Structure formats: structure tokens, C-alpha cells
Please model this.
Amino acid sequence: MSGLSTTLPQVKAALTRNVVLRVERHSPLAGQPMVQAGLPVQPATPVLTAPASVAQPLTLAVARELGIAPNEVGRHLVRPLGAAVAQGEPVAVARRGLRSIQVTAPTAGTLEAIDEETGTLTLLPTVEQVQYPALVAGIVLSAEPRRVVLRTSGDVLSGCVLLGAETSGRLLVLVDRPDRELSPELVTPDVQGAIVVAGMTVGPATVQRLREAGARGVIVGSLTAETLRDAFAIPLSSQSVGWGGQSQQRLRHAFRQAPLSILVTEGFGRLALAAPLFQRLQQANTELVALLDAESVPDIGRPSCIIVREGPGASTEIPRYTFAPGLIVRRTDPRGLGAVGVCAGEPTRQIPQVGSTVGWSVPVSFAPGDTVMLPIENLEIVAPEDKAAR
Amino acid sequence: MASASARSEQAAPHEGDSSALRAAAVCVAFPTVVHTLLFDLVQGTPRFLAAAQSPPNADALSIADRVRASLAMLGSETGRQLLQDGNLITPRHPSGDGVDLLVMTGLPLQPFTACIVPLDDDPTLPHLLRNALQRAPTAVAHAPANSSSPTLRAWLREYRPDVLVMTSSTVTPPHLDACREGIYELIGYAVPPALGLVIAPDAVQRALADEFGATLELVGVDPSVYPPPAIATAIAKEMRERYRQAARSQLAPLTPFPAPIIDLLEAIERAASFIYRRTNTPTLVVSATAGLSIALAAEGHLRLRYWADRDMSAEALAFLTESASEITRWLPWSMRSDELTEWVLNRTVRPAAQLIDERDRAIAAAGIRVLLQRALHDLDTPPPLPVQLICCDPALYALGPALATLTLLDSCQPAPAGGRVTLAFDDVYALPALGALAAIAPAYAAAALEEDGLLPLAECLVLNEPLSQPGTLAVRGQLVQGQARRQFSLPQGSLLRLPLDGTEPVTLSLQPAPGLTAPLPTLSEPLTPPWPALGVILDARGRPIPLATEPEQRRTQLASWLTDVTAGESEA
Model:
């Protein structure tokens, strides 16, 4: 109820420094935790293992294949129910005259059940197991079959979308300005295993080069539709089969298929990475970072880059701010998207027209002599006052 | 008028007795913002007093907290205290603090996702069910035709339906196995639907119940036993009730009694019914907040439909399911399809931002024109539409009076009998608020709706017939107000705005240009204040509206139409 002491909203900044964070590692299917509460973990420590897909039971028509009565299947099994079998291994055998007839397992799995009415055998295929690493250094708070919760600390840069899988690695800043586009020739061999800060954007050729060189992830201000289409084959054109359902969910699903992890901080098009975020990333060059989905950092609720920083002094509460003079903000409406400015005055309530709902607006200075009154719905707080970072 | 379920929730002291009701608050709630409207008696008549909204981009507020925040804001706006220790003050005090009644409406939760999986190749039942589900707060998705088992499994995993709807007209449906595997997939991922609807013969229902009855709540209907309209009505009702229950669980108690919850669609339906009965004119109500809702009341029927996946903000992704050129052809400038894609993605990931730039508004208006046209086609009522009243909600009105007017005219292409159509707007969600209130206190809501439900946006006079000679004179006319006379002429293919002010009645006369055979619209009586925001709009573009096919010509045409309607807008 902290938002009710004043009628102004209290919101988190895109850049939050030195806080204690809960990081959740999820598996879509139930698995086994590989750690216990209280244990320390490193980014590469596996914390959870779970099947890669749902095992769909296969029904083998054993009686028909062997030419036996349905209730005789059990007598012809090579291994007992519950036993594991390899792909191609016989599971049931019968003799017909001098010949031996057999039914083989179409895939590796476990013999699950016999249906004596139909004469069939159910084989539960073995599915590949996936291990989920911690991605951050920290302490295990809880471990369950689908979720392991970790406590870590550090700085958080939140973005607007994360393409591809969650990942971690050493940060590598390859551009000198937040409004610079990373070109393919600037991609060096040492990007292997790194999270690359690529400035304003990356084109399809650079994405290809980064993938070839083994980069784990990228942080950019923006991506163009061309890159989404040509580098990631994300179907965003009229040719895509109707989206249906709800857009946010559909978009997340489409972006998750991307073959390279990319945290986009501002939006789509050609938008510079916000300067305060870029400066913090420059300072963290070569440090370990993680790119995480919104669901994995519930305290933040947005896709984020975590710069892990262990040690005392971290705040246990995520700071929230109300719009006030000096705060660094950025615009979120499509036309003004990504423009970074400073709140130049107190918010005021404005009535757009008679009878309309009252809304809050705040003056924002984008440059000397360029101060605009903007509704607070069109602003995100980037960071507390830090004029040098603009 | 009130449904039994709505009344049973209402435990306030004035149940069934509108005369005891003085002040009412109605919360129109959406997942990230709650608008609250306050009504009270003014000289014995229920009137709208004020509206306020919760902080739009506040983090970590539950719906109940947003309701409280909007009530607190409303209290601050009106000087009335509505909350004490976080609870609603009720009943209303003689001092004016508190309210007698709190009603919830809107779409406080995301709509349910319903996936229709046909078990056979008969399209009749899926079509019927889609229409039924779209009368409830439901996002409907249809499984790709003839899906292989892996495709269907992946599709279901992606959509994670709250409701799985399986249909078959035959006892041995060919796609039953693929569907069974899909259900196993959902169970494996611990995302089983809350409900499975099986509209299929008894044998199919039993087969699915035997296999999944222990894991999944299944409801079955045999389509050979019940008539399809009865099935559709029952399903829409069931989905609305489930949504209401889900919304209730999210709302911490604000009052000693649970506030009645009327979903946005039911509220719009009630408001549209009232307006239609009251005005006896074909009426279209359009809402583009948290999806697209349309209520069309004409010829004694009301048709309501909701598309959860189409609007101008969080669901702007719907713009991309049309070809980009379908959208950009409505823009008075050139825009590449990639630019449109980027605009749509930015809008989708940051939907709360107000569109304050003219260019952004034009793009949103272009998209919503196409979505509205498609919606009217889906409703089997393609434009031109013979309606005499069109009402738009705050999301559409946020385009600005001129662009909102043009958007409604372009997409609905009203062609009313007599040539006169009234456009009205609702800038504070008064229409759904009063529609919801009507479920509890019908007389009170009717009186308030009569006074304050809608504001006039424009009185439009349209030439219904196809016009073949753009640029040549269509009509001449004269507007008379007291001693003042204004003469005007209007070429074919154009619009003309006549702003109105002053207090005296206005008469308008039109004369056809020589050779024009189209019937002219008429005003049977003088117009009187309050004046519509834009005044009178004369639309001489004919029907259907002839949008040029040559790009440059079309852009010039669109720019000139906007100029026609915008001219003198500051006077509005």
C-alpha cells in the first residue's frame, strides 16, 4: 500500500544499484533440484534438472505383431514391466515354427503397462534431461521440483524484452558510445562466452558474426524489424499465421525462440541505449552478468541484466521513486521513445478537457531550452539524479 | 433487468430500492489501471460528479490496491472522504462522505484464453462456439486446421488455454488422438486447463472423461440433443460467471458486503440496450480498451462481440495480422512495413503511454479503422452500416475529436436512413459504469445515463449514394442561427465541418447541385445546445467511401479529409 500515501505512483528505476535480489530458476516440467537451501552457488552451478519434453506414451501392438492372443502378451515380454529398453532392442519375442518373431522398441524408454484386452504394450519414451544453471552467484533460499530460489546482490538494469534464452557470462563492451551500432568487423574472437554490449543496435550480419564467434548474449538499445526477421526469423509479417490469444504472451513465445540472447533496453527501431545504463555497463566491463526474464526476477518484474556484486551494504528493498525534479527519465510513447531527459519540476495534475479524468504531468528537460510537459504514463524513471550520466 | 446472480451479490441496505440510493461509486477496472466514477443525487436526480484513476504506471499494486488508490484520488478530487483505514465508507454520510453502493466492472483480470480444438473437420460447431465465447471475457484461439499431433501439442503448449473447447459432430472423430496427446502435454507442463468443454456426441464425451476426468474439469454437451443457440448462450453465460468468480477472488474486501461485479461486456450490453430502447435508433457502441468490443443494436436485436486480441495498445499486435499495406493505406504519408512493425512492437511492450503525437495517433487510427472494419465483417454487418448513433469509448476519443470522428466515419461508413448520424463519446467510462450500475439500480442508472452517459461529438449528415465525380459540386447549404447566416458549398468527395456556438437554435438547409440524384439528408427540427464538440459534419464522400488506389492521390485525399474535419477544431 506504499503507493497510497500519495496519489502519485511510486515506481522502480531502470537502473537500480546495490540491492539484494531474489532470482528464480524455473523449469517448465517437473524435475529434481540439484542443490539444497543454504548452499552457495556460482553462475555455472546446476541447480535444477528436468525433462526437456513431455514423454508421450507409445502403444505397441504386440499381440498383433506376434500373432498371439491379447492376454498372452505378458508371457512374451523380454524384460519385465518397469525395465528400461534401448532403441531397437527387442521387447517381446514369440516363436512361429522355426522362426523367431520380435517386436522392437522404436525408441529408448521404459516398459510401462500391458493392456490384456487389446494386446498392447505401453512404452514410455526416455526424454533428454536439461540442467538449469544458477546463472548468478548467491545462496539457495529454497529448492523445489520446478523452481529453485536464489538470493544474490548487485546492480540491475531492466530492459523491455529479452530474446532467446536466459544466460550469463563476462560482460564485454565493444562500442564507445551508446548511440553507436556494433558492426561485424568490430566483433573480436574474445566475445566467446561473453555478454556483449553493442550500443544502439546490431544488424543481421553482426548477429551472425556474434553467433559464429560464440557470444552468449548481447545488450542493445534497440532492434530493427529487419534484424528480427532476417537474423531471428521471427514471424512478424502479414504472412505470419494469425496471432490470436493475447499479444504479450504470443510475443514472449516468439522472442524466446531466438537463437541468440539479446536484452533490448529501449525498444524497436534504431534507438540509442540510455546513457546512464550504458555508463554503468562500461563500468562493469569484464564483470560477470546474467540476462534474465521478468519471471526470474520477480522483485523487478522486467527482463533484466544483473551485475552481481557480493559484499555488505546492499539494500534489501528495491527503491521506488515518485516523479520529482532531478530524476533521469525516458519517454515511452512511440514517437518519443528512448529520449532521455531530466524532470525539471514537480508533477502537476492536469485536466486535458472538461469532464475528463485528471492526470499527472511533469516538465522534462531534454536539452537547454527544450522542456516539454509530459504525462507520467509516457515516462519511465531511468535513474535517480545523476547529471553527469546524461 | 438485473440478473439473479448480480442481485444475490448485492447485500447493501437499499437492495431493490433505488429510491434509497443517493451516492454510488463504480470502479471500471483494468489490469493496470482502475477508473472510478462517483454519482450522487443533484436536486433529486442521479448525476455524474467526478472520475479519477489509479496511478497508471505504479509498480506492484494489486487490483484491490488500485481500487483503493482510485477511490482515494476521487476523494481528493471531490473533497469527499470515501475511505477510512483502507475500507469504503458506507452508507453515505449526511456530510457527503462515503457512498451507498460500490459496483465493480471492466476487465480487472486478463480474459480467459479459450482454445478451440476441432476433433473432426466440420467447421459449424467451432464457428458457433467462437461466436459464443466472444460474448464473454475470453481470448479465443482456433487450432490450426488438420494439425499433426506434434503441431497441436506445440500450439497448445504455447497458448496454455484456461479453457479447452473440443468439438465433434461424429462419434469417431479423426483428430481425437492428437487432442488427447495435446492434453497430456498440458498436464505434463502443469498447465492443465481449468475447464474442458466437450461439444460432441456422448461416446466422445465419455472417452475423454474416462481418460482425463480425474485431472480436468470436463463439461459435455451433445450437439444432437440441444439446439446450437442454446449451447452458445449457455457457454457465454458460464464463461462470464467464471470470470466474475475469478475477479472476485482478486479483490480484497473493501466493504462489509462483496461489491457486485459486472464484466465490461455485460455492462456495455446493458448500456447499449438502454440507449437503443430510449432513442429507438440503430446504435453502435465501440470500445477499444483492453480489446475491442462492439455492441450493435438494430431491428430489435443486440449483437455483442469481443475480440481480446485487437486494440490500439497492448493488443496492437493485431495490426500485423493484416497486411501492412491494409493499415498504411489509411495514412496521409508513406510508411514502410518495417516501420509499422517497429511501431506496433513498441506500442505492445509499452501500452500505457498516451499517444500525444499526431503521427502516433494517425497510425493508431489507421490500425483501428482496419480492425473495426474486420470486426463488422465478423459480425456479418459489413460497412456501410445503417446506424444513426455511434458511441465511442475513451480509448477511441483519445485520438482527439477530429481523428476519432474521421476514424468512426471511415471504418463504419454510416449510411443511415435519412442521412443523419450522431457521433457521441464517453471520456470517463461512464457508459460501462452506468451499464454495470443498471444491473443493481436500473432506475438510478437510467436517470444518470440520460443526463451524463454520453457527450455529443458530432452531428453528421451524409450522402449515402455512390458519388462518381469527385471535385464537382455536391450540395449548397445555409446555416442559420438567429440573425447570422452562413452559406457554404461542398464538392463531392469532401467533408465540411460547421462549428456551432452561441445559445440560439440552429437550422440547416441543403440544396442538391444540378444533376445530383442522391437523396439529401435533412434536419427535421432545429439543433439546440448543448453543441457537439465538433459541431455539424457534412460528409459528401458517398458510400462506399471511395479511397483512391493510387498512393499519392490517396495520401492527398486522406490529408484533405483530416483538414476538413480538423478545420477550426480549437473552437470545439
Summary: Residues 344 and 369 of chain A are 11 Å apart (CA to CA). Residues 1-6, 238-244, 352-356 of chain A have pLDDT under 50 and may be disordered.
